[in-house]
Amino acid sequence: MARKTKSDGGIVETIKTVVYALLIAGVFRTLFFQPFWIPSESMKDTLLIGDFLFVNKMAYGYSRYSCPFAICPFSGRIMASEPERGDVVVFRHPVNGSDFIKRLIGLPGDTIQMKNGILWINGQEVPQEPAGTFEEIYAPQGPMGNLPRCENGPVGQGGICKRSRFIETLPNGVRHDVLNIDTNGFGDNTDVATVPPGHYFFMGDNRDNSTDSRYSQAVGGVGMLPAEYLIGRADRVIFSSAGRSMLYFWTWRPDRFFKAIE
């Protein structure tokens, strides 16, 4: 009988340990850092498919979307801090509930427009300077097996996929790479959009391969994003794998480990 009681006590202690560990992990994920795996090419070449990072959830304060499944029991934002233009931000899509990662381009009150593939903010052209080409192998990428879009296409499997790269300098001095293929797509020429109070305008650095604030939510885009949907700021790539699984060590990218996100 004593042996059974001791065994039962061991099981209870194990369950308690597991529960405590889950609670601690949940609190850590909710209040401090959330893991995020890059699934698409919308932020190339700043972020590559297979980059793994932790999102700083303390950067902008907290809303109900800071919690998994949006279960935080409050409305609006608490301990709020304003994001800065040029931040790379993870946010919750208002319609489909997915987590997106894009660069913050427009602040409340800004006017945003694309003209022939060039960004204009508040009536001023945002300067770009040529920065060579971005090259990668034309092959399925990541768990979803996405194929990159190439400026020099069509490119056969195993060929070199190229895209023009530019350095864009935002009005606050933030400099970052952008990739561009053409200047005639829908997202390359837009009407003037005014960012409403309490909202933000986001774009992907891979300008011809990003569903972002240039497109309305009605057509699957992000539209003007209310502040409550912000989750956090991406500051550094922790780990990166070019393969379909992070376990495929031969596809790891050592040069991207702990790489700062600019």
UniProtKB/TrEMBL annotation:
It is found in: Membrane. GO terms for biological process: signal peptide processing. The lineage of its organism: Bacteria, Pseudomonadati, Pseudomonadota, Alphaproteobacteria, Rhodobacterales. Its EC number is 3.4.21.89. Residues 12-237 form the Peptidase S26 domain. The keyword Acetylation does not apply. InterPro entries: LexA/Signal_pep-like_sf (IPR036286), Pept_S26A_signal_pept_1 (IPR000223), Pept_S26A_signal_pept_1_CS (IPR019758), Pept_S26A_signal_pept_1_Lys-AS (IPR019757), Peptidase_S26 (IPR019533). It is an enzyme of class 3 (hydrolase). NCBIfam families: sigpep_I_bact (TIGR02227). The gene is lepB. It comes from Gemmobacter lutimaris. One of its GO terms (cellular component) is membrane. The active site is at S42, K102. It comes from the Bacteria. This is Signal peptidase I. The chain crosses the membrane at residues 20-38. It is a single-pass type II membrane protein. It catalyses: Cleavage of hydrophobic, N-terminal signal or leader sequences from secreted and periplasmic proteins. Belongs to the peptidase S26 family. Keywords: Hydrolase, Membrane, Protease, Transmembrane, Transmembrane helix. GO terms for molecular function: serine-type endopeptidase activity; signal peptidase activity.
